[in-house]
Amino acid sequence: xxxxxxxxxxxxxxxxxxxxxxxxxxxxxxxxxxxxxxxxxxxxxxxxxxxxxxxxxxxxxxxxxxxxxxxxxxxxxxxxxxxxxxxxxxxxxxxxxxxxxxxxxxxxxxxxxxxxxxxxxxxxxxxxxxxxxxxxxxxxxxxxxxxxxxxxxxxxxxxxxxxxxxxxxxxxxxxxxxxxxxxxxxxxxxxxxxxxxxxxxxxxxxxxxxxxxxxxxxxxxxxxxxxxxxxxxxxxxxxxxxxxxxxxxxxxxxxxxxxxxxxxxxxxxxxxxxxxxxxxxxxxxxxxxxxxxxxxxxxxxxxxxxxxxxxxxxxxxxxxxxxxxxxxxxxxxxxxxxxxxxxxxxxxxxxxxxxx
Length: 356
Ligand code: SF4
What we know:
Elements: H1 3-12, H2 17-28, H3 48-64, E1 65-72, E2 78-84, E3 89-95, E4 99-101, E5 105-107, H4 116-120, E6 122-125, H5 128-139, E7 146-149, H6 159-170, E8 180-184, H7 188-193, E9 202-206, H8 212-218, H9 227-241, E10 245-251, H10 259-269, E11 274-280, H11 294-306, E12 311-313, H12 327-341, H13 350-354
Parallel strand pairs: 4-7, 7-8, 8-9, 9-10, 10-11, 11-12
Antiparallel strand pairs: 1-2, 2-3, 3-4, 5-6
Bound molecules: iron/sulfur cluster.
């Protein structure tokens, strides 16, 4: 279901725009659709035909997404394995300080070599309502005032649906526009569309290296935009919304933690309205990539910071519970596949039974 279909179904029941607005706001707050206000009971506001039709609509919304498993982390985050109506799985992560990271696709076509989600390829797009439903699930657990589109998927590859979700979250959802973060590897369509939106979100760009050739190897199916050119496009958007771009840099030992990279960063970031987020890679056992040593990370941050690049180290939320892009889902599927190979001996597990 798309968000426009939700409005249409309500309109078909006889709901006027003010009725649709109130029902949608109730849903977005994780409340019952017929929740009234302090000053006006539902029966004095919503037409009878709408009230009678609400249970069926509520049932459809409940089916969009449900929490199949929850993994609290020691850092205050909590990873939610979310099952969609067709039993596909995505991840959402409740972040410390009222944030929520949501997924925009099942799988991803970009195929970043350090990402679990990329290994599966794109399985399907999420609808705008499925993205908003993740926020609803999050809000039923705790306050959500910031939503980042950094879970599974490349939002630029599902642009219409992502923008529809952002529009609703930034209006009826009551989330500040700069508290909505569109994260992308950098697609020209993003730079055309975002400035024209009613709700213009903050932007995070996955840079990962200043070396165009290395970037192409690490992000094999990302659009071929030179890092320097990508930063120019980012800079124009940052100035237009008066808010800095967050450049994401997954730190891989011996790959993109060299002195040469640091010096190129200094050159490219000079005068830019930007923040650099270094995200030390979250290594799994027998992984091709490793995270740099803590000492090296500290050195890099000091070097860049002291030379004027606003640099932060961001650990993937909940990494003590297999954090990092798509790793929780990958583990769940892995458990399923393993249990199938073993004659379904693992069927008692919550994660196993939830998978298709
Ligand atoms: S890191 Fe993001 S863009 Fe790259 S494959 Fe994973 S989900 Fe896709």
